[in-house]
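Customer escalation, tier 2.

The customer says the design service returned an amino acid string that "doesn't look like it belongs to this structure." They asked us to rerun it and document both sides in this ticket. The original structure tokens are below, unchanged.
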């Protein structure tokens, strides 16, 4: 009796009344176990990684005697290692050195090595290190003489290592051991470099939060659980979090958002998260689709493969939470508000019927031509809320919105739609920087595309990606706005580059860099 009582109180305190008994999503756990340390001095380690610019000539590092030098340089010449960017040469049991292995990692011409390429190299370095037994890794960067390149490249490599080492193992009763190496990054000037490392770590933490939220199965990442999880990770960073429950959503007139979850007992919520990093009155708003599962509703998704991944339909909302977390963690001097309309698209006797008409927050009416086009229904009210209640000076919405986008661009690019060239420019710049690339599709020339016979507009139309964008455009009104369709980019089946298998956290790095670029111009 006693134990039972103690248990149930414990469960209530842990917030698990909101959650399925299997797993408490409300308990944030550390995302990774790898540790980093920035230093100017040589550290003892199991593994020495030397960053080698192209055509460095004979390698000499302080502490290497003649025998060590000979061994390593002979290996270089036998393997014809030139230091080309991304090339690697492993030397096991190097003569005269106290390291089990030395890995030479080519960085090409350091001035030309991009952030994205360095991150990829860090990710593949990490994959390789995880295959060795090394527990401590020392990364020597001092052959990169220019201090700016030295810090930039080291921080980007570390970011790549970190991004690759995230694991989603909360549902495994016996998870595989996580990567848990200790890395020391030996850089030109540790105090200068440390700031860059910290900024990158805050960014990675944002990505991990987004991956975690996106990875949550539909039944555990439902609207209220998503909102509470976001609140728990954001408030400690000084972010102001407001959660509107279903009654408030209805009272504010957001019938379009409300309608998507009306068939479920897991009702609509709206998450609002404000980072006030400067005193600007008008915030930049990021609005993300947080549909915790997409069955399609009465327009049911009938293919097993297409419905299975639909727990990732909250990836846009997760990206917004992650970006707010990153910007707050970086103490970025920006005023930004994340808005996440949260829903679950399910069927019951109360669910929306195809052909029903709902009324959005702005008072306009929408014919639900297809209950599977639910993303735009929740975003319509999210965008309107950002414009009407938050007085946003610009709005970017991001969503896994249409299969048509995947058909057009695959997962190499997100589609962006905007009539503002400054937004388009900065978005493309941000995308190139972090390799979450975007490509513009047109808004002009589709008059009548979402015309409804009986209501103000309908949530379907062809071509599909444009119909989604043009539908949303109405709700942004005159506020400068961009729509990002990231369908197809939320999830990878197997580890690739900086992503372990599963959710990618796509959009966090794009939005974080975009907000800073847009603010700066
Ligand atoms: N969440 C889906 C879009 C999607 C599809 C994301 C594939 C990721 C991979 C969205 O809600 C949806 O179902 N869209 C429909 C809209 C249509 C019914 C107008 C689509 O694109 O087929
Ligand atoms: Mn859908
Ligand atoms: Zn969807």
């Amino acid at each position: 009796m006693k134990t039972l009582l103690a248990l149930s109180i414990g469960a209530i305190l842990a917030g698990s009344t909101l959650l399925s008994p299997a797993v408490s999503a409300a308990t944030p756990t550390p995302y990774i176990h790898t540790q980093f340390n920035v230093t100017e001095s040589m550290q003892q380690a199991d593994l020495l990684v030397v960053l080698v610019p192209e055509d460095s000539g004979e390698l000499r590092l302080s502490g290497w005697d003649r025998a060590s030098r000979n061994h390593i340089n002979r290996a270089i010449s036998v393997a014809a290692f030139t230091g080309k960017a991304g090339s690697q040469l492993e030397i096991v049991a190097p003569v005269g050195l106290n390291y089990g292995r030395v890995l030479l990692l080519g960085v090409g011409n350091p001035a030309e090595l991009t952030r994205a390429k360095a991150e990829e190299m860090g990710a593949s370095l990490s994959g390789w290190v995880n295959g060795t037994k090394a527990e401590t890794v020392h990364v020597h960067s001092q052959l990169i003489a220019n201090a700016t390149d030295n810090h930039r490249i080291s921080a980007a490599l570390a970011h790549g290592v970190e991004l690759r080492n995230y694991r989603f193992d909360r549902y495994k009763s016996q998870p595989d051991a996580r990567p848990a190496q200790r890395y020391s990054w030996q850089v030109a000037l540790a105090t200068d470099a440390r700031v860059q490392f910290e900024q990158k770590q805050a960014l990675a933490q944002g990505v991990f939060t987004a991956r975690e939220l996106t990875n949550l199965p539909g039944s555990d990442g439902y609207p209220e659980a998503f909102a509470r999880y976001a609140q728990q990770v954001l408030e400690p960073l000084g972010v102001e979090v407001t959660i509107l429950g279903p009654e408030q959503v209805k009272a504010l007139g957001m019938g379009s958002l409300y309608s998507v979850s009306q068939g479920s007992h897991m009702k609509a919520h709206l998450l609002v998260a404000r980072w006030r990093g400067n005193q600007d009155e008008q915030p930049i708003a990021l609005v993300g689709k947080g549909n915790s599962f997409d069955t399609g509703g009465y327009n049911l998704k009938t293919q097993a493969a297409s419905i299975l991944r639909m727990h990732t339909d909250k990836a846009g909302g997760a990206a917004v939470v992650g970006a707010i977390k990153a910007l707050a963690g970086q103490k970025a001097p920006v005023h930004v508000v994340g808005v996440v309309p949260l829903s679950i698209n399910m069927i019951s006797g109360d669910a929306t019927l195809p052909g029903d008409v709902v009324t959005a927050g702005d008072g306009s009416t929408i014919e639900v031509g297809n209950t599977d086009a639910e993303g735009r229904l929740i975003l319509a009210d999210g965008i309107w809320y950002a414009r009407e209640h938050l007085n946003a000076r610009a709005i970017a919405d991001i969503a896994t919105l249409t299969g048509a986008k995947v058909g057009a661009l695959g997962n190499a690019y997100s589609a962006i739609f905007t009539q503002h060239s400054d937004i388009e420019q900065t978005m493309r710049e941000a995308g190139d920087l972090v390799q979450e690339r975007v490509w513009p599709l047109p808004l002009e020339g589709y008059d009548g595309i979402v015309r409804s016979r009986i209501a103000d507009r309908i949530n379907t139309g062809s071509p599909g990606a444009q119909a989604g964008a043009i539908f949303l455009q109405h709700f942004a009104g005159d506020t400068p706005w961009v729509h990002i369709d990231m369908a197809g980019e939320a999830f990878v089946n197997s580890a690739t580059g900086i992503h372990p298998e599963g959710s990618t956290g796509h959009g966090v790095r794009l939005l974080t860099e975009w907000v800073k670029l847009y603010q700066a111009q």
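Tier 2 assessment: The sequence is consistent with the input. The pocket of zinc ion (ligand 3) is lined by residues 291, 294, 313, 374-375 (CB under 6 Å). The first strand starts at residue 35 and ends at 39. Sent an explanation to the customer and offered a walkthrough call.
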